[in-house]
Amino acid sequence: MKLPKILLQPKLPESLPEHAKWLSGEGAGSWFVFEKAENNYRITRYSPKGKFECENMFTCSEKFSLEDNFTMNYPSHCSKVTVIQDNLSLKFSVIDRIN
Fold first, then answer.
1. How many domains does the chain fold into?
2. Where are the beta strands (DSSP E) in 6-48?
3. How confident is the model at residue 1 (pLDDT cuts 50, 70, 90)?
């Protein structure tokens, strides 16, 4: 059985902030940047080289803190984002499409 080729985390592109989070994928991957926007979150997705892919406003299913450590998880794309924080799977859903 052939194992999938997971794209390891590349060097963070200089154009992205240090707090960008990497999500590895099979043959691909993406950077995600989270920003607090009132009671919601602006999440922007970038290619491995830092090219803009999409940006939307999201709401979270549970209590989430940008100040606490978290990791990216699946599914995560331009319409849904999942993170693990404090051993909980937190799901973000689009409430407003920006780009």
1. 1
2. 21-24, 29-37, 40-46
3. low
**Rounded to an integer, what distance in angstroms lies between the CA atom of residue 60 and that of residue 19?**
19
Residue whose structure tokens are 């051993």: 87
Query: Domain range for residue 30?
Result: 21-97
Q: How many CB atoms lie within 10 A of CB 95?
A: 11
- Strands, sheet with 71-73, edge to edge from the N-terminal-most edge strand: 21-24, 29-37, 40-46, 52-60, 88-97, 80-85, 71-73
Residue 12 lies in a domain: no
Instruction: Kindly report, residue by residue over 5-47, the tens digit of the pLDDT.
Output: 788 899 999 999 999 999 998 878 999 999 999 999 999 999 9
- CB burial of residue 83 (10 Å; 0-12, 13-18, 19+): buried
Question: Which stretches of the chain are DSSP H helices?
Answer: none
Instruction: Please tell me whether the peptide bond between 13 and the residue prior to it is cis, using omega within 30 degrees of 0.
Output: no
